[in-house]
């Protein structure tokens, strides 16, 4: 399994890694990122990309996120997991691969916007080349995630299903392709 991690949210170019300088792997030049994914695909059974992207507190991914997510899959990623927006964003099946645009916060201070206090654990099982995925909802209370139950869990999963037009999120959290 190859894990690659990139950021498209950097406060300064000085944070970026260079040929002779440690730092963060930048997604601002996506051609290099896609090349690394293709390279990883040659040597791994499964390629997972984590990416720091998106606009804060927006449940809808920006156009570049969708384009970049699709191109990452086209380059060989089996799973793309986004983070940064501080709020849940859609999940999507694209060409049989899963893109989770943002899982929101996980451990964070209390937000005034309740949707920013909701998160999920993405459980992934690999069955050969096939991915099975499940969301486990949690609510951040006093800076720590607590698993949701009952009506709160049902409401959360229903919300994620509604904002995910290219996936179906079932009442048990299972994520399947839309019919």
Can you describe this structure?
With 179 residues, the chain is an alpha/beta fold. The protein has helices spanning 30-43, 63-75, 150-163; strands at 2-7, 47-52, 79-83, 91-94, 97-100, 118-127, 130-141, 144-147, 168-169, 174-176. It has a five-stranded mixed sheet. Strands 6, 7, 8, 9 and 10 form a five-stranded antiparallel sheet that branches. Strand 6 (118-127) and strand 7 (130-141) form a beta hairpin. Helix 1 (30-43) packs parallel to helix 2 (63-75). The longest helix is centred in the first third of the chain and has 14 residues, at 30-43. It starts with a strand and ends with a strand. The model has no long low-confidence stretch (mean pLDDT 90).
Poorly predicted regions: none
Content of β-strand: 25-35%
- Output mean pLDDT: 90
Main sheet summary: 5 strands, mixed
Structural class: alpha/beta
> Kindly, what is the distance between the CA atoms of the first and last residues, rounded to a whole number of angstroms?
29 Å
Q: Could you spell the SSE succession in H and E letters?
A: EHEHEEEEEEHEE
Helix content: 10-25%
- Note the total helix count: 3
């Amino acid at each position: 399994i190859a894990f690659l991690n990139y950021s498209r949210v950097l406060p300064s170019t000085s944070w970026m890694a260079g040929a002779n300088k440690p730092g963060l792997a930048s997604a601002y030049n996506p051609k290099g990122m896609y090349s690394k994914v293709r390279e990883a695909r040659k040597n791994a059974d499964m390629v997972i990309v984590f990416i720091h992207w998106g606009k804060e507190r927006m449940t809808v991914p920006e156009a570049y996120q969708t384009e970049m997510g699709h191109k990452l899959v086209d380059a060989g990623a089996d799973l793309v997991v986004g983070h940064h927006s501080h709020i849940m964003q859609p999940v999507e099946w694209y060409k049989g691969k899963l893109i989770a645009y943002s899982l929101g916060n996980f451990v964070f201070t209390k937000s005034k916007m309740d949707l920013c206090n909701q998160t999920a654990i993405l459980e992934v099982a690999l069955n050969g080349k096939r991915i099975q995925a499940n969301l486990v909802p949690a609510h951040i209370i006093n800076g720590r995630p607590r698993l949701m139950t009952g009506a709160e869990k049902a409401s959360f999963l229903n919300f994620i299903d509604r904002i995910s037009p290219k996936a179906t999120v079932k009442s048990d959290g299972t994520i399947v392709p839309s019919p």
